[in-house]
Amino acid sequence: MNVLWVFAHPEPRSLSGALRDDGLRTLRELGHDVRESDLYAMKWNPVVDAADFGAEAGDERLVVGATSARAHARGELSPDIVAEQEKLTWADAVVVQFPLWWYGLPAILKGWFDRVFVKGFGYGIRAEDGRTLRYGEGPLAGKRAMVVLTAGAREPAMGPRGVNGALDEVLFPLHHGTLFYAGMSVLPPVAVYGADRLPDNEFAEARDRLRERLRAMETTDPIPFRPQNGGDYDEDLVLRPDRAPGITGLGAHLTWTR
């Protein structure tokens, strides 16, 4: 299997860096081909601007979606974007690793998605019958994705009644709104809690847990999000009344809430 590891942490000697190094070594020992995007080491530019789109930008008002789609179709995206898209095209699975900062991604990683998942590559594809291919379908369908994250909070505080909110809900924008939106099958995340004060024995447990998840990456059942075009949603993309009746919120978009 071809695996792309996207890493977003500014310190390679951190706990996150140690997990990344062990994870890459584990994948290679398992016989997988691995490529890496170490965003801080690459000095990745996270800011979308007209320079991303080459000749397409010109002096006209920048409409990011339409302009990026034309630049992608004409091969005029900037070389750093093209290089990351080539890695994604090559990959069968993507590991996205980051520390959870302010309930979300580090800016450099958010900017990686903003610049790489342009219209025509990450979204904006239509089927022959006119359906928009997203939420379970689309250009990255068939690929697997798994988030590996560190959080300063202890695990109970990110549980169902924890003050920080349940982790699956905190990650919903990334899991459902980005990875699944682009068609990828999203595996349950690997989370390391209390990461800024983790004793050696708990680090060893986290390392072993990550190793086990990497060994099972090809067979682990993905999070059962409802596909947009599977019949669960009406023409306004609202759940039909007989799907998850009485349930609202993010959990309604999982197939086990029938």
TrEMBL record:
Entry keyword set: Oxidoreductase
Keyword Transferase recorded: no
InterPro entries, A to Z: Flavodoxin_fold (IPR003680), Flavoprotein-like_sf (IPR029039), NAD(P)H_dehydrogenase_qn (IPR051545)
Record-annotated Flavodoxin-like fold domain positions: 1-214
Pfam families found in the cross-reference section: Flavodoxin_2
Highest taxon of source: Bacteria
Keyword Oxidoreductase appears in the UniProt entry: yes
Enzyme's top EC category: oxidoreductase
PANTHER family: NAD P H OXIDOREDUCTASE-RELATED (PTHR10204), NAD(P)H DEHYDROGENASE [QUINONE] 1 ISOFORM 1 (PTHR10204:SF34)
Enzyme Commission number(s) of this protein: 1.-.-.-, 1.6.99.-
Family: Belongs to the NAD(P)H dehydrogenase (quinone) family.
This protein's name: NAD(P)H-dependent oxidoreductase
GO molecular function, one term: oxidoreductase activity
